[in-house]
Recover the amino acids of this structure.
C-alpha cells in the first residue's frame, strides 16, 4: 500500500505468476471499492487501485461530463492519457512489467478503461468492463487493437449505459481488430453475481501464460 505517486492509489503484489488487476471504481467511489472483488476474479492476484482524479459535487470521477451520459470527450482523452502514464510508472515502480495487467472497471471506471484501451492499447490491452459504454463519441479510432481483448458486461435495462452505446463500443473495438466478448443480462446498472463468475473465467482464460 502506498501513496508515493501524487495520484492516490493502493497496491498489492499478490502471488507470483498471477495477473495484476487495475481496479477502476465508479462515480463517487474510492480506490477501496473494488478490492473485495480481487480474490473472486483472480485468486491471489495483485492489484493496482488508483482514485479517480476528477471531482463532481464532491464525488470522485475519472473524467468530466456535461450531464448524465454526455461526456466531455476532450477530458476523456486527456484523462485516459494520464491513466496510461500512471500505469507505466506503477509497472516500473512496483516491478510488475513482466506480469499481465487486466483493467477491471465499473460504470465510470469501465468507461475510462475502455477509453484507455482504445487510445493506448500498448498500455491497456485487457479490459473487463461492468456497465460501461462508448466514451469517445465523435472521435475516430485509428489504433491497431489486434492485441486487445475486452469483456463487456451490461444489463438490458441500463439507462446509464444504453444498449446502442454498448453495441457501438463493441463494434468499434472489433473494427480495429480487438477480441470482444459480449455478455448481456436482464436488469440495470450494476454488477450481478453471475457477471463476476463470467469475468473470473474470462480473466483466467486470458492470463493462462502467467500461471505456467
Amino acid at each position: 500500500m502506498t501513496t508515493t505517486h501524487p495520484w492516490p492509489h493502493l497496491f498489492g503484489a499478490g502471488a507470483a505468476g498471477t495477473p495484476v488487476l487495475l481496479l477502476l471504481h465508479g462515480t463517487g467511489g474510492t480506490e477501496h471499492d473494488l478490492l473485495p472483488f480481487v480474490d473472486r476474479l483472480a485468486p491471489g492476484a495483485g492489484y493496482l487501485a488508483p482514485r479517480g482524479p476528477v471531482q463532481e459535487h464532491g464525488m470522485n470521477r475519472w473524467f468530466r461530463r456535461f450531464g448524465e451520459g454526455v461526456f466531455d470527450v476532450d477530458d476523456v482523452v486527456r484523462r485516459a492519457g494520464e491513466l496510461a502514464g500512471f500505469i507505466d510508472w506503477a509497472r516500473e515502480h512496483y516491478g510488475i512489467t513482466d506480469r499481465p495487467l487486466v483493467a477491471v472497471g465499473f460504470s465510470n471506471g469501465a468507461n475510462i478503461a475502455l477509453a484507455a484501451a482504445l487510445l493506448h492499447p500498448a498500455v491497456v490491452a485487457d479490459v473487463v468492463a461492468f456497465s460501461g459504454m462508448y466514451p469517445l463519441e465523435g472521435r475516430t479510432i485509428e489504433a491497431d487493437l489486434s492485441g486487445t481483448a475486452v469483456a463487456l458486461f451490461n444489463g438490458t435495462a441500463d439507462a446509464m449505459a444504453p444498449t446502442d452505446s454498448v453495441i457501438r463500443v463493441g463494434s468499434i473495438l472489433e473494427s480495429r481488430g480487438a477480441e470482444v466478448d459480449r455478455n448481456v443480462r436482464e436488469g440495470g446498472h450494476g454488477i450481478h453475481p453471475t457477471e463476476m463468475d463470467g469475468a473470473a473465467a474470462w480473466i483466467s482464460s486470458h492470463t493462462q501464460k502467467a500461471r505456467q
Observations:
- The mean pLDDT is 93.
- Helices lie at 38-41, 73-93, 108-119, 163-175, 193-206, 208-211.
- The two ends are 27 Å apart (CA to CA).
- DSSP finds six helices and eleven strands in the chain.
